[in-house]
Structure formats: C-alpha cells, structure tokens
Amino acid sequence: MSVRDYPLSVSAERAKALSCFSLSRVWRALGLVAAAALCSPLWAQVIPKVTLSVADTREPSDVAVALQILFLVTILAIAPSILVMLTSFVRIIIAFSFLRRALGTQTMPPDQVMVGMALFLTLFIMMPVFTEINDTAIQPYLAEEIGFRDGLDKAVRPVRNFMLRQVDEKDVALFVRVSRMAPPRNADDLPLEVIVPAFITSELKTAFIIGFVLYVPFLVIDMVIASVLLSMGMMMLPPIMISLPFKIVLFVLIDGWHIVVRELVTSFR
Question: Which of 108, 154, 163, 177 is deepest in the core (most CB within 10 A)?
Fold first, then answer.
C-alpha cells in the first residue's frame, strides 16, 4: 500500500468503527425501552386464567349452569352439520353440483362460489324460521322471561315445522316403523330422531329429481352433437368439446341461473 492510500484506509476504518458504535448505542436504547415496558404497571396486572376442572359444590344451580355452557359449546361445535342437515342447504348444493356436471364445465363455477351461493340462498329461505326463533326463543331468554329449557323447546319448534313441511310421508312412515315406536296420532307426536333422518332422505330424493330435470336438456345437446360428428366421420373428436359452447350459449340465452334459483327457492313449502 502506498503512502498516498494510507489516509483513505484510516478514514474507512474510523467510519466503520463509528457505525458499529452507533449501532451498539441503538441496540442499548431499544433494550432499555423494552425493559421499561416490561416493568410497567400494565404488565404487572393479573391475567385471568381459564381452566376446565371438576370441583365439589353444594349448589345444584352451579352444576346446571356448567351443563348449559357445555351444551352450548357442543352446539357451536356441530353448528356446520346442523346447518347442512336441518336446512335447505342439501337440496341447493346437490342441484348446483348436478347443474355443473350437466354443463360439463368441470370446476366452473368453483366450489367456493357454489357453496357460498348455496349458503346465502339457505339463509334467504330459512330467514322466516330464524326470525321466528329469535322472536320466540332467543330474545325472551335473553330478557329472562323464559328458562333455558323453554327457550330450547321454542327454538326447535320452527325448525321442526319447516322439516315437516318438506318431508315425505313415506319416509316418515319408514323411520317410524324401523324405530318400532307406537304409531303417532299426529305430527306433534313425532320425535326429532324420526323427523331429521326422514327430512334428509326426502331432501336427497328431491335434489336428485331436480338434478335429473337439469341434466336432460344438456344430454340432448350432447347426443345431437355426437350424432352430427359421427355422420361427418369425425369420430376422434370428443363431442363434449364441441357441445360445451352450445350448452353455455343456451344456458345464457334462456337466463338459466334465474330459472334455476327461482325454481329452487319456490320448491320449498
């Protein structure tokens, strides 16, 4: 290294040392701030601890409240299954699935779109039921006008009536016979363990009927396109590739989504 380059090297080393010293001062300042924050009164406050334990008690009301909380937590855990099985969701999502397969669009619309649309249609169809539950069960219970047991009975009644309006009598008779219970005098004598499976069976049957009706027009288009291709000697060309644009155009021209949604909504009694 020449004498001319010596001052430059010294100044570079001095700048590096100053930068390291500045960084160390910054880190020390940050450490002091963190220590002050940890020692503040906010961190010294007692944080409540949530535990789940079994303890002795002499008050039956304490046990009842704990069981009610456990029941509500269980209901929240199985809420998705309740939404699927006790509402109009099953019929709607199966009909949409059949429609997508009939169109031959594979993953269009995506599953998220179909499930979201089915959920919002379910909320729209079930809104009178939810409103009745809120007016007759939830609000009186929150106002302490009725007890928990009465509120539960009043909340179940609108859902029960909705399922009874959709269920087929043959399905109800099937589960009454299988359960070997005494023949009920009227619908009010039917227990939920009979109504729920009968309702699900009826919904599956109705959804498959709707799916068949949706499939037929598009199946006719596929058959016509396949016959035309066969007559032209184009046997190696997949008919679905040619029929897909025609099916989409037909579905759009007849305003297919409007018709499907309208018929699905009005199919519920």
Answer: 163
